[in-house]
Design a protein that fits this description.
Elements lengths: L2 H16 L15 E7 L18 H8 L2 E7 L5 H10 L3 H4 L11 H8 L19 H6 L4 E6 L2 H4 L9 E4 L20 H14 L5 E7 L35 H6 L3 H31 L6 E6 L23 H4 E8 L6 E8 L3 H8 L14 H4 L10 E5 L5 E5 L3 E6 L5 E5 L15 H23 L8 H6 L5 H6 L3 E4 L6 E4 L5 E4 L2 E3 L21 E4 L7 E4 L8 E7 L14 E7 L2 E7 L11 E7 L1 E7 L6 E3 L1 E6 L3
Helix pairs in contact: 8-10
């Protein structure tokens, strides 16, 4: 049953549908196809050559596309890995499947070490995907298929690693040494091991009916492809810089934060280089499929979990990360190749990640589970239909809770805490730079009404499961404090001037101090002057002159901070400053119960390892600093410490 039929029948089938998992799928005839699901991580569609990117960074994926069918308008359900893969594997929207938040322990050895050893990590059971929600390998096993997963990203699998897989192999993306790539420069270069394992598995199971999921951690940050793949730089580009574990390069990152076009272009080139690196191993895997004679009875599906901002929306998400619902994050590749798939076809049908489960089950001749939110794309693949989705939806329930809806031309994004609405005409503004809600009031109202109905339907669906109170995404949407959110809440964290948790607004007003020198982001500044390369250090400080509040910095965290927290701040003096800093720097703390502001004298920064307390807060959301002050302000670090831990 699809999501549109759910409203009519929900009250009738809940007990039957979810009482026992084996009753979800009826016996089915043998299926004709093997399925290989390829999922390169953090791969923007518009950065693939086959989707129009000018650099030839994806020759093997280009060949896959030329021999298969390309969906030009496919979009992620979430903005990052866990909610997106939850949808890819369940066919449910993120708010319905509920897996939208990371554990506070993050994705370190606590989780990866057990997975590497073939064990489940010690994550509390009520934080795992509900057992009432079947995932794709479970559904395919019921049809007689052998299932295997080959993965390197624990965000995509820690909650479903034990479900439905005959074989499960995990490669720890930042713990494997890579020859010639010392330290942090070896992060997430697991494609050789991933491909070798998948090749061997295919040779051993080539005579079986199988479902194989191969997840490439590449081209995820850091942008650290081996030098031979860094082919897209020009003499005008900045020299190479060493890779740091902040997911970027220490000199390029702060310059890109200030909008320097050369720095942003260089980061894009390094991202393209890592795509080229990943593409090489995709080619090796496809060569194995061809050499084993599997193409005649195998379908390969390539899709990504999300894209990457790469500084494309500086005023509200001034990072190269992925925590938004802009198409830089949401537009993902979707390519079908193999048995029965028409070659050289490029279709304009709207597609979402929730469509993959019904599509694969339809290809296999298997019935759908009792509840799925997607539509089968088989009618589009066979040319019987031009469109199966009127709308496609997206969700971000972590840092800035948002929901989006799009039709064939227009898109609307709603920010839940503020009620702010953005509308875009994607036909003329694919970069989503101009909010045109006021110019299209009728269309905006139509999309907003449809989105409201969609959210209400998701809440109804989510609450239909017996264990709905454990649904993290639903708790965030309804702004409820639950034991599950308290379990996820961070205990102690520091947010500095990098990563998705830090944002600069009014970036043209900000400056950079590095080693006592100042720079405003222009090419002509002292940090980009001719002569020896003088890159900003990793410990550069952002600062802004006094003004009307147009310059602001914001610190926050992915997971809701549930409970009581002490918030403290730390900053440094500007060594090259000739004027006194602000004596009344305006810090604003937003928390569930309201806001509180503080005037801080920045001329007496805490000594090293000392922090200035702002106070204690229940369920804090963010800290914001503005330049509505009597002197320059400095964006330092903010620490959130859960009390009683």
């Amino acid at each position: 049953m699809d999501r549109r039929g759910f409203r009519k029948a929900a009250s009738c089938f809940i007990v039957l549908a979810f009482g026992f998992f084996p009753g979800l799928v009826r016996a089915a005839k043998p299926a004709p196809y093997n399925i290989i699901l390829l999922t390169p991580d953090q791969l923007r569609a518009d950065f693939l050559h086959t989707y129009g990117f000018p650099y030839p960074d994806s020759p093997n994926i280009d060949q896959l596309a030329s021999e298969g069918t390309v969906f030009l308008h496919a979009y992620s359900a979430g903005s990052w890995t866990t909610p997106s893969f939850g949808t890819i594997l369940t066919g449910l929207f993120p708010t319905v499947h509920g897996m939208t938040l990371p554990p506070y322990q993050s994705c370190g050895p606590y989780i990866t070490r057990p997975l590497t050893n073939g064990q489940l990590p010690p994550v509390p059971s009520d934080l795992l995907l509900s057992s009432y929600k079947p995932i794709l390998p479970e559904l395919l096993k019921s049809g007689g298929m052998i299932t295997a997963a080959d993965n390197a990203n624990c965000w995509s699998i820690w909650d479903i690693a034990s479900r439905g897989w005959d074989t499960f192999k995990f490669f720890p993306g930042y713990q494997l040494p890579v020859k010639g790539q010392p330290g942090a420069s070896s992060f997430y270069l697991t494609a050789p091991e991933t491909t070798d394992w998948a090749d061997n598995w295919l040779r051993a199971h080539k005579d079986s009916r199988f479902f194989l999921w191969v997840h490439y951690m590449e081209p995820h940050t850091p942008y650290n492809a081996p030098p031979e793949y860094d082919r897209f730089k020009t003499p005008d580009d900045y020299p190479d810089l060493t890779v740091s574990d902040r997911g970027s390069t220490p000199g390029l990152y702060p310059m890109a934060m200030l909008g320097n076009a050369r720095a942003i272009r260089r980061l894009q080139q390094l991202y393209a280089a890592k795509i080229l690196y990943m593409d090489h191993y995709v080619g090796e895997l496809l060569d194995t499929v061809r050499s084993l004679g599997l193409k005649q009875d195998t379908i390969v599906i390539l899709v990504s979990d999300h894209g990457q901002l790469l500084f494309s929306h500086p005023e509200d998400f001034n990072t190269d990360d992925h925590r938004s619902l802009y198409d830089a994050d949401q537009h993902v590749p979707l390519i079908f190749w193999g048995a029965g798939i028409e070659a050289g076809r490029r279709v304009g049908a709207l597609a979402g990640q929730c469509d993959l489960v019904p599509t694969i089950l339809s290809l296999e001749g298997l019935p759908l589970p009792k509840l799925t939110d997607g539509e089968s794309l088989v009618p589009v693949l066979t040319g019987k239909e031009d469109q199966v989705n009127e709308y496609v939806y997206g969700e971000e329930t972590a840092q800035t809770p948002q929901y989006s809806i799009r039709d064939e031309r227009y898109k609307l994004i709603e920010t839940m805490r503020t009620g702010a609405i953005q509308c875009f005409d994607l036909a003329v503004d694919p970069g989503e730079q101009a909010n045109i809600c006021a110019r299209i009031p009728r269309k905006a109202a139509e999309l907003e009404t449809a989105l409201d109905a969609h959210i209400a339907e998701m809440v109804e669906q989510a609450r239909s499961f017996p264990d709905w109170e454990h649904n993290q995404a639903l708790a965030v949407l309804e702004q409820r404090d639950t034991p599950q959110l308290a379990e996820l809440a961070p205990r102690l964290m520091e947010v500095g001037d990098n990563g998705a948790g830090f944002q600069l607004g009014g970036r043209s007003l900000w400056r950079l101090e590095s080693n006592g020198k100042f720079w405003d982001g222009t090419v002509e500044g002292p940090l980009a002057s001719p002569g020896p390369w003088n890159a900003p250090s990793p410990h550069s400080e952002f600062w802004a002159p006094p003004g009307d509040g147009s310059a602001w910095a914001r610190w926050r965290f992915d997971t809701p901070m549930t409970g009581d927290y002490e918030i403290t701040i730390r900053w440094k003096r500007l060594r090259g400053a000739s004027q006194q800093l602000a004596t009344n720097a305006n810090f604003l703390v937003r928390y569930k119960g309201g806001t509180r502001s503080f005037a801080v004298d920045l001329n007496n920064p805490p000594k090293q390892r000392k922090w200035l307390p702002l106070g204690e807060f229940r369920d804090p959301v963010s800290v914001t600093l503005t330049n509505r002050a009597d002197g320059p302000i400095v964006a330092g670090r903010v620490r959130f410490q859960r009390l009683g831990e």
